[in-house]
């Protein structure tokens, strides 16, 4: 029941909300309630998994190994919960202002359904199905607002990401042809004994598909136009939740194809370094706040690739930890930038320190995790890169803060700008406080990252269980 509930509640809410007018405030709060219920269900599932181990169910009355499986370990639930919380916060942010489209609440729930589903499925094709549910929701949300720039951003987003989706589908078909199964645990057992050349080709296609979602260099060309063209709540969803498809996908399929991940380590390190340097310098050269955040996103995901390229237990812990911290940072930044008021200036200062990796923010532990991995693997160039990337982050975040929030009270007096909606400012303040709490008390996050890395390294096959998703 715990495994099904988070997925079922967002799916049912999305279907119901699709026929309602999402511009009505109470409809928006129904979506908020459904997302909150799903998040609570995922927390309960996490507690259950930490206590009893991997949770697994088989759909219908099919035998184990034949029917489509739902399977959840700490890694799966961590990314599912992270995605739902980001979508929940972004939805609350939009509802506290004014929802401008009747379909927004339903699309938020559909996106959450897709991200939860791909995180909890144990079947590669089912992963693709949920992947597309999330992406189709994102395609429509990218045009939310229906102005010229939003529609242009949606068109770019659709074209580029459809190419990535096609590559991923071809790779899934290739994996089935190569291994004779779509079960991801079975694939991980069979892939080491198949011919190396076709498996490397398939791994490359999977990597490109997820690299497009992450927006790493040189697959970044769509990202700035989309992030700057969408509304703040949608940009937060795309950068803080949807981009998790790339992070989670690389971790999950990296665990499924460990030989190919190890062979591709030099490529991951190279592209990660290029993303950090390119994103940092581009962000420094930008003057628009949303452009700075867009190019910052390119630079920050480079650290995830660096951690994956280093590999080993320490590298996997760092990749999970940085993915979580980066998702929180981007959500906070994209929601705070359009707001005004001295409270928002304080929030932006906290977010800037977190991106730069300055304690006591959560970003410090994200950078420290990658640093530890580099030291453990004796990678002096990577250590130097971390310091260079952090310096670039500090420069462009200081530029952003200085140009937009340093003298915000004077700007409001001079231009007649009034502070933003108090409830929205309160929301970003709560998120900023969470960033500080993680920085002061990081032990739960570090523990989850350790457990998630252990789940990647030890994908234990549980015995078939009698509970069925249907037919009982």
From TrEMBL:
<keyword id="KW-1133">Transmembrane helix</keyword>
<feature type="transmembrane region" description="Helical">
    <location>
        <begin position="301"/>
        <end position="325"/>
    </location>
</feature>
<dbReference type="Pfam" id="PF00361">
    <property type="entry name" value="Proton_antipo_M"/>
</dbReference>
<feature type="transmembrane region" description="Helical">
    <location>
        <begin position="379"/>
        <end position="401"/>
    </location>
</feature>
<dbReference type="GO" id="GO:0042773">
    <property type="term" value="P:ATP synthesis coupled electron transport"/>
</dbReference>
<keyword id="KW-0812">Transmembrane</keyword>
<dbReference type="GO" id="GO:0005886">
    <property type="term" value="C:plasma membrane"/>
</dbReference>
<feature type="transmembrane region" description="Helical">
    <location>
        <begin position="151"/>
        <end position="178"/>
    </location>
</feature>
<feature type="domain" description="NADH:quinone oxidoreductase/Mrp antiporter transmembrane">
    <location>
        <begin position="345"/>
        <end position="392"/>
    </location>
</feature>
<comment type="similarity">
    <text>Belongs to the CPA3 antiporters (TC 2.A.63) subunit D family.</text>
</comment>
<feature type="transmembrane region" description="Helical">
    <location>
        <begin position="199"/>
        <end position="221"/>
    </location>
</feature>
<dbReference type="GO" id="GO:0008137">
    <property type="term" value="F:NADH dehydrogenase (ubiquinone) activity"/>
</dbReference>
<feature type="domain" description="NADH:quinone oxidoreductase/Mrp antiporter transmembrane">
    <location>
        <begin position="123"/>
        <end position="337"/>
    </location>
</feature>
<keyword id="KW-1003">Cell membrane</keyword>
<feature type="transmembrane region" description="Helical">
    <location>
        <begin position="422"/>
        <end position="441"/>
    </location>
</feature>
<feature type="transmembrane region" description="Helical">
    <location>
        <begin position="127"/>
        <end position="145"/>
    </location>
</feature>
<feature type="transmembrane region" description="Helical">
    <location>
        <begin position="263"/>
        <end position="281"/>
    </location>
</feature>
<feature type="transmembrane region" description="Helical">
    <location>
        <begin position="28"/>
        <end position="47"/>
    </location>
</feature>
<keyword id="KW-0472">Membrane</keyword>
<feature type="transmembrane region" description="Helical">
    <location>
        <begin position="332"/>
        <end position="359"/>
    </location>
</feature>
<dbReference type="InterPro" id="IPR050586">
    <property type="entry name" value="CPA3_Na-H_Antiporter_D"/>
</dbReference>
<feature type="transmembrane region" description="Helical">
    <location>
        <begin position="103"/>
        <end position="120"/>
    </location>
</feature>
<feature type="transmembrane region" description="Helical">
    <location>
        <begin position="77"/>
        <end position="97"/>
    </location>
</feature>
<dbReference type="InterPro" id="IPR001750">
    <property type="entry name" value="ND/Mrp_TM"/>
</dbReference>
<dbReference type="InterPro" id="IPR003918">
    <property type="entry name" value="NADH_UbQ_OxRdtase"/>
</dbReference>
<protein>
    <submittedName>
        <fullName>Na(+) H(+) antiporter subunit D</fullName>
    </submittedName>
</protein>
């Amino acid at each position: 029941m715990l495994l099904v509930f988070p997925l079922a509640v967002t799916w049912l809410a999305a279907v119901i909300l699709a026929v309602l007018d999402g511009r009505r405030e109470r409809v928006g709060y129904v979506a908020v309630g459904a997302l909150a219920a799903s998040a609570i269900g995922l927390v309960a599932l996490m507690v259950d998994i930490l206590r009893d181990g991997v949770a697994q169910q088989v759909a219908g009355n099919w035998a184990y190994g034949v029917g489509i499986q739902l399977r959840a370990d700490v890694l799966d639930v961590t990314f599912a919960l992270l995605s739902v919380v980001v979508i929940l916060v972004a939805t609350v942010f939009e509802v506290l202002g004014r929802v401008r489209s009747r379909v927004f609440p339903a699309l938020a729930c559909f996106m959450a359904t897709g991200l939860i589903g791909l995180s909890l499925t144990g079947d590669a094709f089912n992963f693709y199905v949920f992947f597309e549910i999330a992406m189709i929701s994102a395609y429509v949300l990218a045009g939310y607002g229906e102005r010229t720039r939003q529609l242009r951003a949606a068109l770019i987003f659709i074209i580029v990401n459809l190419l990535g989706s096609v590559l991923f589908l071809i790779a899934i078909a290739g994996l089935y042809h190569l291994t004779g199964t779509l079960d991801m645990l079975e694939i991980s057992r069979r892939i080491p004994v198949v011919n190396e050349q076709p498996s490397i080709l398939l791994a490359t296609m999977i990597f490109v598909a997820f690299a497009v979602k992450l927006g790493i260099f040189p697959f970044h060309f769509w990202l700035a136009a989309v992030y700057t063209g969408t509304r703040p709540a949608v940009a937060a969803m795309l950068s803080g939740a949807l981009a998790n498809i790339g992070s989670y996908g690389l971790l999950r399929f990296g665990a499924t194809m460990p030989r190919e991940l190890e062979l591709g380590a030099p490529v991951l390190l190279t592209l990660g370094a290029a993303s950090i340097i390119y994103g940092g310098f581009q962000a420094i050269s930008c003057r628009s706040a949303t452009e700075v955040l867009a190019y910052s996103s390119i630079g920050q995901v480079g650290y995830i690739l660096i951690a994956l390229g280093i590999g080993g237990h320490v590298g996997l812990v760092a990749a999970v930890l940085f993915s979580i911290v980066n998702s929180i940072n981007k959500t906070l930044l994209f929601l705070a930038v359009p707001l005004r008021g001295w409270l928002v200036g304080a929030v932006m200062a906290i977010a800037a320190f977190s991106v730069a990796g300055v304690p006591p923010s959560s970003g410090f532990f994200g950078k420290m995790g990658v640093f530890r991995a580099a030291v453990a693997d004796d990678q002096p160039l990577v250590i130097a890169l971390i310091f260079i990337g952090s310096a670039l982050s500090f420069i462009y975040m200081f530029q952003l803060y200085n140009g937009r929030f340093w003298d915000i009270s004077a700007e409001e007096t001079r231009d007649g700008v009034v502070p933003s909606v108090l409830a929205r400012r309160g929301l970003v303040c709560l998120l900023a406080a969470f960033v500080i709490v993680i920085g002061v008390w990081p032990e739960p996050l570090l523990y989850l990252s350790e457990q998630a890395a252990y789940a990647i390294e030890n994908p234990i096959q549980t015995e078939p269980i009698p509970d069925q998703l249907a037919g009982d």
